[in-house]
Each structure stands twice: as structure tokens, then as C-alpha cells.
Design brief:
There is one protein chain. By secondary structure, this protein is of the alpha/beta class. It folds into 2 domains: 1-31 and 179-198 and 226-291, 3-Layer(aba) Sandwich (Rossmann fold), CATH 3.40.50.150; 32-177, Rossmann fold, CATH 3.40.50.150. The protein is built from 12 helices and 10 strands. The protein has helices spanning 3-9, 18-31, 33-53, 73-86, 99-111, 128-134, 156-165, 183-195, 204-213, 242-252, 257-260, 263-273; strands at residues 62-67, 90-95, 119-124, 141-147, 167-178, 218-224, 227-229, 279-281, 287-290, 293-299. A 7-stranded mixed β-sheet has the order 3-2-1-4-5-10-6, sandwiched between helices. A 3-stranded antiparallel β-sheet has the order 7-9-8. Helix 5 (99-111) links the parallel strand 2 (90-95) and strand 3. Helix 3 (33-53) packs parallel to helix 4. The N and C termini lie far apart (52 Å).
């Protein structure tokens, strides 16, 4: 069986509907990914907010665009830091296509109204493409964030160019996504080479290349350490627990990888997944996946 045949026989996780959300939720809980992103925001947003504030007039409204913030966990922290450090008057455009996540974000804002009382929210239940079609050309922003959402914006170079052009001079764009030199970046490269798979998700390496091609200056790239115990993925296929099976599907971004991938390919991928390229050994002998994220910080000169 050729790599091309293997790729054809495997269903992409991104095409699995609700199952993708189930797999993402399992990984998020095991890795505490949302918490780590929130910690990164708390550690780094104060300095970024000060940088933005220095270029604002006292009577000027600070404008924010949030691309696909989901349930708003990291986003409301960003807005709190901007409100407290940068400027009391904030207009925040929230672009989120999922109605359920939008409602959860709105409920979160209601619960924390005291912290966000001076933020004027503009809720847009739209995809990135729908927003582009309806946004005014003159709309500009001092701060734009895309946390784990740039994957869904379509053509990477065009999306980054659009967001960069939407920044005010002195504005900041932060794109957080999976690190090219982390476990996901290395595993997916191995899957492309071994199984001939096409994985639609980008990594920070792809963002670096896209910015270079578009002459977009990257100010800094910071690694966000995210790790997950993936020991349950290495049981024989017939003995995999439900969580082990789902977690392996998320890591490989396929549906029923353990059952549908030919044994020789499955064993090769598992060996690579457990190697130092992707994982390390924990104190009790467990396999700890290095699922690092990267925060790409772009400043408009």
C-alpha cells in the first residue's frame, strides 16, 4: 500500500463535525491548554498594553478585533489588561462564527460586567470571510488577536495581510497557534512524509514564511509550554480506552487512526510520537507530549 492510498483511506478529523470538538475538548482538558494561554496573556499583555497606550491620545478610543475567541476565556483577560493599562474607553469587535460559543462568551461578560463595564462590545457571529465582506474599509484596530483560530481563516498569506492592513500604525497583532518546532509540528510533518496526508492546520513556521513573503515584520515569537500525558495512546488497538482512541485521533488529526491505519504505518507513527522529537518521559515513566504553542507578535511600524 502506498502513502497516497493510506491518506485516501483515512478521514480527516476536521471533517468529522462534532467529533472534532469532542477530541479538542479532551486534549484541552488533559493539557490545560486554555489555562496556559490565559497565563501567557497575564504575563505578557501588560507590557503590550503599555506599548499601545503610549501612542494614544487621552480622548481616543482603543479599538480591538478578536478573531474566533471561542468561549472568551483568554479574550476577557486580554480586554481586562487593555482596559486597566491602556485606555478606559475600548470598542471590541468580537468575530465568532459558532453561536453556542458566542453565547458562552456573552454569559461570561455578563458575569464579569464590573471588570468590563467600559468595553463597548460589537458582537459579530460571522466567519472570517463573512466579516471581510461586511467590514468597512476604514475600520482600523490598535490590537488584533487570533488565538487558535488562524487555521480557519482560509489562505494564510491573504489572511495575515488583511489583518496587518487593519492595524493602526503602532498597533499589535498577536497570532497564537501550534509551534512548528513543537510536537504537533514535527508529528504532522512526519505524517505528511510517511502517509502522504494533507493536514490543513498551520504552525508558527508557516506563519513565519507567510509573513516573510508578505513583508510583514515579526517583532517576536514566544513559546507557550503546553504538555499532555498521552500514555493511553500506546495500548494495542484492541485495548485502547475510549479516551486513548480519541486522543490519538486528535494528535494525528484523523478519525479512528488506530483501527484504520495499516499496522506498519500505525506502528511507525506511534514510534515517532513517543520519540524525543515529540515527547519526553515523565517521572513515572509516562509519555508526555510537547504540544507547544507559539505566540507570534507583529507590530505595525
Amino acid at each position: 500500500m502506498t502513502a497516497r492510498q493510506v491518506a485516501v483511506d483515512l478521514q480527516a478529523l476536521s471533517e468529522s463535525g462534532d467529533y472534532y470538538n469532542t477530541a479538542l475538548d479532551l486534549y484541552d482538558r488533559g493539557s490545560r491548554r486554555i489555562q496556559r494561554l490565559s497565563e501567557w496573556v497575564d504575563e505578557n499583555l501588560p507590557a503590550l498594553a503599555e506599548s499601545i497606550s503610549s501612542g494614544l491620545r487621552e480622548d481616543e478610543e482603543l479599538t480591538v478585533l478578536s478573531v474566533g475567541p471561542g468561549e472568551g476565556d483568554s479574550d476577557r483577560r486580554i480586554l481586562s489588561h487593555l482596559r486597566g493599562r491602556a485606555h478606559p474607553k475600548i470598542r471590541a469587535v468580537i468575530m465568532e462564527p459558532d453561536s453556542h460559543m458566542m453565547r458562552q462568551y456573552q454569559d461570561l461578560v455578563s458575569k464579569e460586567s464590573a471588570k468590563l463595564q467600559d468595553v463597548d462590545f460589537d458582537w459579530r457571529q460571522q466567519t472570517f470571510q463573512e466579516y471581510q465582506a461586511t467590514a468597512k474599509e476604514e475600520d482600523k484596530f490598535h490590537f488584533i488577536s487570533s488565538f487558535s483560530s488562524i487555521y480557519y481563516c482560509g489562505d494564510l498569506e491573504k489572511s495575515l495581510k488583511y489583518l496587518y492592513e487593519k492595524l493602526h500604525c503602532g498597533g499589535i497583532l498577536v497570532v497564537a497557534l501550534m509551534a512548528g518546532e513543537g510536537g504537533f509540528g514535527r508529528l504532522w510533518q512526519h505524517l505528511r512524509q510517511t502517509l502522504g496526508m494533507t493536514i490543513d492546520f498551520f504552525t508558527s513556521t508557516d506563519v513565519e514564511h507567510a509573513c516573510r513573503n508578505q513583508n510583514i515584520p515579526i517583532a517576536e515569537i514566544q513559546t507557550i509550554s503546553i504538555q499532555c500525558d498521552i500514555s493511553s495512546c500506546f495500548d494495542p488497538p484492541q485495548q485502547l480506552t475510549q479516551d486513548g482512541n480519541i486522543l490519538l485521533d486528535f494528535l494525528t488529526h484523523t478519525v479512528n487512526f488506530a483501527q484504520n491505519a495499516p499496522a506498519e504505518y500505525r506502528d511507525d507513527v506511534l514510534r515517532f510520537l513517543g520519540s524525543e522529537a515529540c515527547s519526553k518521559t515523565g517521572p513515572a515513566g509516562e509519555a508526555i507530549f510537547n504540544g507547544f504553542d507559539a505566540a507570534v507578535i507583529i507590530r505595525k511600524q
